[in-house]
Amino acid sequence: RKVVPTSDGDETRAEDDSKPGNNPGEEVVAEAEGKVPFGKLYRYASGQDKLLMIIGGIFATAIGSSLPIFMMFFGDLLNIFLNYNKVVACAQFPIPSNASSAKSFMDSLVTSFDPVRVQELVSTSPMYDIAQKAYENGSYTFFFPPSTTLASNSDSGVLNAAFKQMYDDQLGNTVPGATGLDRYNSPLANSLWYTACSFNNSGFIPSMQVAEYLSGTALLPFSGGWNETWLEENPSYPKDGEALKQQAYFYTILFFSLAAAMFIAGYMRMAFWKMAGERQGMRIRQAYFRALLRQEMGWYDVSKVGELGARLSGDPVAIVEGIAEKLGEFIQNTSAFVISIVIAFLQGWQLALVMTTVLPLLGIATFMTTKLMGSFATKSAAAYGEAGAVAQEVLSSIRTVVAFSGENRESEKYSKNLVTAEKAGIRMALVGGLMMSLLNFIIFAANGLGFYVGAIFTNEGVMEGGDVLTVFFAIIIGSFSLGQASPAFAALGKAGGAAYRIFTVIDRTSSINPLSKDGKVPTHTDGEVELKNVVFKYPSRPTVTVLKGLNLQVKKGQTVALVGHSGCGKSTVISLVQRFYDPLEGEVILDGVDVKDLNIKWMRQQIGYVGQEPVLFATTILENIKLGKEDASEAEVWKALDIANASKFVRDLPDQLLTSVGDRGVQLSGGQKQRLAIARAIICDPKIMLLDEATSALDSESERLVQGALETIMEGRTTIVIAHRLSTIRHADAVCVVDDGVIVEVGSHDELMAKDDGKYKALVNAQTGTMLGGDAKDSSGSSKETDSVLPLTGEEESIDGGAKTGVDEKNREETLAVTSATHAIDNEEKKESEKKDGTVLTKPKFSDVAKLSLSEFHVLIAGVLASIIDGVIYPVFSIVFGEILNLFSLQGEELLQRAGFYSLLFLILAAVGGLVGYFQYFCFGYMGERLTARLRRLAFRSILRQDMAWYDKDENTSGKLTGSLEMEAALVR
């Protein structure tokens, strides 16, 4: 089946799904066991929906890419700040063209030396004695006079080999190509600049690093020797403070622009995915509900009806969440991960390669966790579905439950399913906590490793500080994005499972499809019904043969009564005539045509049905009657009510046709409901009437009114009656006695009573108490004539299986009138009345909800403490981050030592973050599952304690109450 857009391109409709084998997605079920493949989830997406999702995907990709790109620009800005000191130092250091200018700069630099640092340095030097004397005498110009044996030969004053080597290593590399400079005998050799280059066992300390230390000034461009082309190679770096401000302003505007773009993209992503998802969700619900209406009765016999209804509220929500909002999040986080990795490798592939070694660990942890959580989520959903089915069954038959004091039994049954769901949810919280713990530990540990390796690369000149931080945060963003993508991925899996349950029903080919357009549609109907050699078994009881070659013929306009003991197959005949089931053998024929060859909808429109316990829906009288004929006018409705003897009591109601009948018609008496059911049955002017114990549950007065209506509608129509009243059977054209799945006697009432050993006479005598061969005579035709001929039938004949106590019709009508009038008062009067009755519910405080979790108080304390610690981790991380920014202005051992310290701090944060992440997720997940189950349990028990008048209110129908138990308790969590 295809889903095609309508003319406006907005809504969609399903193509004809009536033909067997033409149902949508039959191949889907075969492709996966318990889960629908990803591509098949979008079978209800129209072209407009696909466009919305494509645009939403583009915005999701954009917002996912924005943060890594932001960090790339941030790294560039950081490089500008870190190198600004280099630029300033370079600007004040003239390129020496001769020895004089070089010496002038050196001497000026000496004046900025910190005496304390000089003292500290020379105290560790092998030349301590000489250096100390020179320092004490204030001799800065000639720290090593020519007479010093270390610097030169005492006789000739020529520099010795060691000091000459120092010139080659330091001066020659520092001032290459300076004209007019005597590299060995210049006074520059005797300045404090080179005195600072003290000799130790490992060689000479690089002069510029010592100068940096002594002056406290960063001279990084010159640490490896003078580079006169450095400024030319880095034209983007600001040359002065004004240029720095301009570049900072540029990046400020850039960051604000990115923020605005992220805001717009975030809104668009959410809006487009939400719209596309909700539109598809609506169609899925419609298709599922339509599929439920399409199924044959045999399928319902073997299905859990309550669970099917509960799925309508839960599973489509999971599907929509997975295919729309969560998919948008998945695309966003996946794009953030991919872009982050790309930027990291572009900015510094060496460091990125080191940090990405942990990604397989993240992937394995995420995959295993998602799989386990999906399994537990499925078990939890199934258990909640079972609980919902119990609630639906109980609340829809609440009067029967209360009548037999079954509240506690049903409450325990409901709670049993909640326990199963609760255990699955707690296991899911346990696995989720482990996932959070692993993710936190791996991510923080990887960051610590990456930071230390980045410091090494910076110290060796492989990378700049800003690039290290760009790679560092790109990997962090990518890692977190990968972690955040896992819940979205899990939601996709959950959507696949929910879709399997929903689509399996939608895709099922009904053997009797009432929505089918196939079959003959005759222009005229006589109403002759015939069953030929019918053999039938109910799908729910395949070992029991109900009908065993039954034959029955009902001619046009004839009234035939079916009698027999309970379970003999009378109501089965009614079901076969309506084609609720198909016989295993034999034929059911209407006007000479097998009903299998007729269009089902047309055929059922020719039949009016009134059962023992009429089912009315929780809407108005008008809407209930129009279910028999959708396009019926109000005049036709009143005419049907007149025929059914119901117009009088309806006109006496304040709202008349607009009166709400309540859930299953609880606002009405049995007689009133039955007469409305008769009006609904005859409004389409059917040629065939099927009456199944239509008066068995009524009191005498109600029966009189209903029986009068039935006699009216039976005139001129082919009628099959299952009855237990002599008055009905006596006037039938033929009485058929059904026994053990076949008709054993046929004749009029008088003919059958004339048979001394007949089955019919035995049944009548057994119920009336007369002697065999006698007759049930009562000239008045009152009480004795209304005695039962047959017991109330069970099994397939009755859905609820219970009889309703009769209520005085007049009093009931007066009660209904009062109830209807009450519904007519305005809202303010309602509120005032509710306040007086004390029924107005106030919004509960958080403390009220918290009291429900007192039994898990110790778990709450652990969760709160874990949350506090987890909240502290990120401020600590921000402090560490600030120190990291300062750290990359350093070099050498100090850089590596401090980098090692902060890397160790990252490992500590990893351990703490992993531990508290586990406790936080598990503790609150555990409490949430317990609270959800407890709320459902308490709410269900409270519902069962209410009086019957409470159930009569429109806001307390079984459907609304079941929906509240299903959805609202979960929201509290």
From TrEMBL:
<feature type="domain" description="ABC transmembrane type-1">
    <location>
        <begin position="251"/>
        <end position="494"/>
    </location>
</feature>
<keyword id="KW-0067">ATP-binding</keyword>
<keyword id="KW-1133">Transmembrane helix</keyword>
<feature type="transmembrane region" description="Helical">
    <location>
        <begin position="901"/>
        <end position="927"/>
    </location>
</feature>
<feature type="transmembrane region" description="Helical">
    <location>
        <begin position="469"/>
        <end position="492"/>
    </location>
</feature>
<dbReference type="InterPro" id="IPR027417">
    <property type="entry name" value="P-loop_NTPase"/>
</dbReference>
<feature type="region of interest" description="Disordered">
    <location>
        <begin position="1"/>
        <end position="27"/>
    </location>
</feature>
<feature type="transmembrane region" description="Helical">
    <location>
        <begin position="859"/>
        <end position="881"/>
    </location>
</feature>
<feature type="domain" description="ABC transmembrane type-1">
    <location>
        <begin position="861"/>
        <end position="973"/>
    </location>
</feature>
<keyword id="KW-0472">Membrane</keyword>
<feature type="transmembrane region" description="Helical">
    <location>
        <begin position="336"/>
        <end position="365"/>
    </location>
</feature>
<keyword id="KW-0547">Nucleotide-binding</keyword>
<dbReference type="InterPro" id="IPR017871">
    <property type="entry name" value="ABC_transporter-like_CS"/>
</dbReference>
<keyword id="KW-0813">Transport</keyword>
<dbReference type="GO" id="GO:0005886">
    <property type="term" value="C:plasma membrane"/>
</dbReference>
<protein>
    <submittedName>
        <fullName>Uncharacterized protein</fullName>
    </submittedName>
</protein>
<comment type="similarity">
    <text>Belongs to the ABC transporter superfamily. ABCB family. Multidrug resistance exporter (TC 3.A.1.201) subfamily.</text>
</comment>
<dbReference type="GO" id="GO:0140359">
    <property type="term" value="F:ABC-type transporter activity"/>
</dbReference>
<keyword id="KW-0812">Transmembrane</keyword>
<dbReference type="InterPro" id="IPR003439">
    <property type="entry name" value="ABC_transporter-like_ATP-bd"/>
</dbReference>
<dbReference type="InterPro" id="IPR003593">
    <property type="entry name" value="AAA+_ATPase"/>
</dbReference>
<feature type="domain" description="ABC transporter">
    <location>
        <begin position="529"/>
        <end position="765"/>
    </location>
</feature>
<feature type="compositionally biased region" description="Basic and acidic residues">
    <location>
        <begin position="10"/>
        <end position="19"/>
    </location>
</feature>
<dbReference type="Pfam" id="PF00005">
    <property type="entry name" value="ABC_tran"/>
</dbReference>
<feature type="region of interest" description="Disordered">
    <location>
        <begin position="771"/>
        <end position="811"/>
    </location>
</feature>
<dbReference type="GO" id="GO:0005524">
    <property type="term" value="F:ATP binding"/>
</dbReference>
<dbReference type="InterPro" id="IPR036640">
    <property type="entry name" value="ABC1_TM_sf"/>
</dbReference>
<feature type="transmembrane region" description="Helical">
    <location>
        <begin position="51"/>
        <end position="74"/>
    </location>
</feature>
<feature type="transmembrane region" description="Helical">
    <location>
        <begin position="437"/>
        <end position="457"/>
    </location>
</feature>
<dbReference type="InterPro" id="IPR011527">
    <property type="entry name" value="ABC1_TM_dom"/>
</dbReference>
<dbReference type="Pfam" id="PF00664">
    <property type="entry name" value="ABC_membrane"/>
</dbReference>
<feature type="transmembrane region" description="Helical">
    <location>
        <begin position="248"/>
        <end position="268"/>
    </location>
</feature>
<dbReference type="GO" id="GO:0016887">
    <property type="term" value="F:ATP hydrolysis activity"/>
</dbReference>
<dbReference type="InterPro" id="IPR039421">
    <property type="entry name" value="Type_1_exporter"/>
</dbReference>
